Amino acid sequence: METRNTHLDDDRVERLRRRTLVPEELIEASRHIRECAACRARVASNSATIQAGRLLDRELSSDLGVAPHLDFETLLPYVEGTLPDERRADAAAHLDECSMCRAEAEDLREFRQVMAARKSRPRARYVAWAAALATSIATALFLTRPAPSTPRSESPPRASATTALVVALRDGSRNVGLDSNGKLHGTTAEGAWADVVASALRNPDLQRPESLRALSGSAETQRGPSGDRELSLREPVGVVVESDRPNFRWSSTLNDARYELAVFDEKGRVVVRGATREAEWQPSTPLLRDATYLWQVRAATAGREVIAPAPDQPEARFAVLRTDLATQIAAARQRNEGHLVLGVLYFRGGAIAQARKEFEALRAENPDSDVARRLLASAKQ
Fold first, then answer.
1. Which DSSP state fits 161?
2. Residue 149 and residue 175 in one domain
3. Phi, psi (deg, nearest 5) at residue 285
């Protein structure tokens, strides 16, 4: 067993960092760093080990009077899927809001994967290994940590596991909103995009992007009832579309017509064209994002040609959702974000139809919320 006068060698520290020590070695290392300030400093200075040591930091949090986190006895069965249902819901709600506990849960999942690969080791040894690692590093962090500025008897009361929100919306399995300091909770959106979502909650009467004005001049004319027009464009007209391969649709009263469709860039150059006998068409190659387009349909029937838009009608314009917003929306869906984040991102990019769908779902979950009502109203204008 290691003693105070025999420091952990570099190999032992490295294997501790790489999580390859067997439980017995970890227990010995734990005992040693509890007594040896030099080795404790070496361990605590390693960023990867500190990250693993977060596993028991909630024990330290209670001593320092800060908000409690999920303890090891809750996180482990949560990750393994054995936590009782009545406790699992509370744990899930906490993980939605607490980035540190989410990271620790991911650490535990990684531990399980490592140990699953070592089939010769029974489950009991895995638990001992993970617990020993957490104990050793948490001890190191605690003993090298500066003392609290106030005596323990004067520490503030613990906050509840769920932060009180002054603006709150139910969004699927999440509670999303703002606390009294204006901080966003219940979403993993970060940086500028988190600011955009928080701003929408503070001021839910959203203003449409200026870029839509250049698109919307002919929207009602083109998409309205065809009346006496034999050929009328339906969509996309006056909108921002999410897909870079949008579906083009039109109305026609012409019999046995052959349609030729052309999409132009803002300089009038043809970027894609196609032919069909149906009243819809989708390009096989994607359009560039961050661009505005015009489109036109020519119908040939009974020896004559009909064009839409007609010469006396406004141009049919549309845009494809910006690359940065398309990327953020895809990432938000990957993270299983709710309707609020998706709706705000769509609205920001001018994809109002998609934003409206998200806000309608959010409103349905929060029928008494003025914030949800005003967000939806913004997308209906």
1. S
2. no
3. -115, 145
pLDDT-derived band at 351, boundaries 50, 70, 90:
very high
Q: Give a yes or no: residue 19 inside a domain.
A: yes
Alpha-carbon distance of 238 to 309, in angstroms, equals 13
Q: What is the CATH number of the domain that holds 181?
A: 1.25.40
Q: DSSP secondary-structure letter at 209?
A: P
Domain that holds residue 364: 167-203+322-380
- E strands, 139-238, in order: 167-171, 174-178, 184-185, 231-235
Separation CA 373–CA 359 (nearest Å): 8
Confidence of residue 156 (pLDDT cuts 50, 70, 90): very low
Question: Rg (Cα) of the chain, in Å, rounded?
Answer: 30
Contact 58, 68 (CB under 8 A): yes
Instruction: Report residue 218 CA to chain centroid gap.
Output: 35
What is the tens place of the pLDDT at every residue in 167-197? 999 998 889 999 988 899 999 988 888 999 9
Comparison of pLDDT for 306 and 33, the residue scoring more: 306
Q: Which residues contact 129 (CB under 8 A, 6 or more apart)?
A: 21, 22, 23, 26, 111, 115
Predicted confidence at residue 137, as pLDDT, reads 52
With respect to residue 255, please indicate whether it lies within any of the assigned structural domains.
Answer: yes
Q: Is residue 161 part of a domain?
A: no
Q: Is the pLDDT of residue 253 over 50?
A: yes
Yes or no: say if 361 and 329 are a contact pair by the CB < 8 Å rule.
no
Q: Residue 216: which H helix or E strand, with range? A: none
Q: How many domains does the chain have?
A: 3
C-alpha angle with apex 355: 321 to 194, nearest 5 degrees?
A: 80
